[in-house]
Amino acid sequence: RLDRERFVATMEEQARIGATEAGGLHRLALSDEDKEVRDWFTERMEDAGLAVRVDEFGNMFGRREGTNPDANPVLVGSHLDSQPYGGIYDGQLGVIAALEFVRSLNDAGVETTHPIEIVNWTNEEGSRFQPAMQGSGVWAGAQDIETEYAKTDEDGVSFVSELERIGYRGDDPAEPREEYEAYLELHIEQGPYLEENGKEVGVVTGIVGFTWGGLTFHGEADHSGPTPMHYRSDALVAAADVITAVRRIPGTLGERTVGTVGYAKVHPNSINIIPDEVTITWGFRDPDDEIIQEAYERVLAEAEHAADREGVDWEHEERMRAPSVTFADTCVDAVQTAADDLGLDSMRIFSGAGHDATHLHSVCDTGMVFAVSENGKSHNESEYTSWDDCYAAASTLAEAAVNLAGR
Amino acid sequence: RLDRERFVATMEEQARIGATEAGGLHRLALSDEDKEVRDWFTERMEDAGLAVRVDEFGNMFGRREGTNPDANPVLVGSHLDSQPYGGIYDGQLGVIAALEFVRSLNDAGVETTHPIEIVNWTNEEGSRFQPAMQGSGVWAGAQDIETEYAKTDEDGVSFVSELERIGYRGDDPAEPREEYEAYLELHIEQGPYLEENGKEVGVVTGIVGFTWGGLTFHGEADHSGPTPMHYRSDALVAAADVITAVRRIPGTLGERTVGTVGYAKVHPNSINIIPDEVTITWGFRDPDDEIIQEAYERVLAEAEHAADREGVDWEHEERMRAPSVTFADTCVDAVQTAADDLGLDSMRIFSGAGHDATHLHSVCDTGMVFAVSENGKSHNESEYTSWDDCYAAASTLAEAAVNLAGR
Ligand SMILES: NC(=O)NCCC(=O)O
Ligand SMILES: NC(=O)NCCC(=O)O
């Protein structure tokens, strides 16, 4: 059994690092706040007697040995970074639950057959540097480390320089050093389904696929007054057409398809200059990879139409493509059994958000536990999961993990 | 006759202050570069024997006395500030032409009946602080000085603090100290009409009216993945609808109506967060004030529809409303006669851009000269007017001004 009081206190402790005034979290990957929470987490892992290591991409591991030296480790964790002005639960809950899990094993003097490793993946959010799930992606071999090192944020600062600056470019190679028995991750649902169905915990069966990308339109800057309408090549008008199309496309594809333009940057961004350069992003998700491909083709077709109409040039860059993932039965069953054994009211659910588990799926059997998200809100300071729901999900994770690790 | 070589050299000199790599000008109102060009201009006016004064809003005047102590001054000038990454001609040409005009009177030992004042108006561009034509607006009584002092730029820095910082909050009241005989302004056309018609100089008959404003949409930030489309209140989608509408509205109103969204700011601006706050601007212009009012009503109606559709809140703020202006016959005739006397091929033209002359119109008889804009381009580093065309327009200005001032 997890120590509920210590668990809640530890959640509150981490939430102070990068706290926003409105009670959220602003702890972007490789920022000063990320460094601070990493330092704090290192200490907590050492206090729990774990052997800490950091890999060359900043992924942090804490290991607790098992009784069988030949057994493969069970990996449990998530991420401590946040969205800009995000919430305090997100992936943080998954990391703190993993920590509390090993602390509880220590308290109870339980030895497991398999070693247990807990993990904090680098840059899961993908907001400052893209793609999301970058640390787990590199570690699982889905992304090339040199390419990802070279990525830059909005200010042109490179990933690797920031990783070094905060002191988290470790020595360990960013790859699995051995085979893993399983990976389990607890995360908040970030959607409305558990709450809508009155459930206490979610047994995740898979993760939607997605495509992310950027579109840039190049028009001609000119004076907003004396330039007749038919002389104009307005990059923002072309971008607006695509924003509208992205709102419409999901409704023509699938029940669970979603599409979003979350980002727009306008140059020179002056009230009386016709914009000459506008960048927007796209994001589409669906459980079906073919729908993802179709959405990708449609957004490019819309961009081409819009650019033609407005007489502007355009270019695009797909920044991420993640296939839809279906979890291993062993893990789904382990999570289901754990929830049942704890007497929790659960339901099976397909994740609408990407998770580090997406990449871990290619390394070993993988599963996830979802905690209820009030109003389905996340990536927002008002993201909320009650301590009851946090505790229910953390207990499910611990129960499933200890069963997989063998006691 | 103006000294063409000195005139071109002076144009080139001013263009060095705040020069961009691409040969444009980045000299925002009340910036360090604006201070530098003001210091430079003060020296040039003093060298030309003018009595320099600066008013409490930073407008700079240089006076050359006339022979009749009772005669009202003829005022000639424009503005030295620029758009972000704008061109080197814009209003700068009008100020340098005014300076070269008095220098040439000095060279030739010409005494005029009326005093001549040359002027550099503060913040004509309206990019960093809004509205545009702010200095002339305050001076002419169209704007309240305390309200304008309190205006802030994007970083929340106030106009008055910047004016003091650069040392240009002068002692003179920002208002006409006496009656003025006339105001003449030379500016580049910023539109394509003179070039399209193969003309050498434009005789401006009036200025379009305009409305400028800001619209802000307030939606709900949420995760771009697990949030079903029908749960969303996306502020950027609402804004995109209005951007599209602004492109369309002019075509339903008048032949010369233009409409532009030059600015958009998205919060939190992350690829995987549904935007919760988006601000865009509008700008509409037309020679007919009723069309301006109609465009204003339509853009608000569009905003309301878009906000309803997306389930977001919205607010608006009109930042500027300038009536359409028709110039005094005396001034139009003086400019026409000057162009004819110089043997220049001219045409009458209505300005599609706002100018300080808009406000001066309420103070005294006002007129303008337009120089040819290649490709109609302005507010852009590639803005271009040949030295021939600059000189033709400057000569027309000088000829018209000296006639009004009486030699
Ligand atoms: N779970 C989560 O928010 N991951 C970030 C990447 C994504 O947007 O899905
Ligand atoms: N002439 C000019 O560019 N004025 C700035 C204000 C406007 O946009 O008309």
Automatic annotation (TrEMBL), chains A, B:
Domain Peptidase M20 dimerisation span(s) in chain numbering: 206-307
Bilayer-spanning residue ranges: none
Entry keyword annotation includes Hydrolase: yes
GO molecular function terms noted in the UniProt entry: hydrolase activity
Highest taxon above the source species: Archaea
Annotated keywords: Hydrolase
InterPro entries linked to this entry: Amidase_Cbmase (IPR010158), Bact_exopeptidase_dim_dom (IPR036264), Peptidase_M20 (IPR002933), Peptidase_M20_dimer (IPR011650)
Keyword Coiled coil: no
NCBIfam families in the cross-refs: hydantase, PRK09290.1-3, PRK09290.1-5
Protein name: Zn-dependent hydrolase
Lineage: Archaea, Methanobacteriati, Methanobacteriota, Stenosarchaea group, Halobacteria
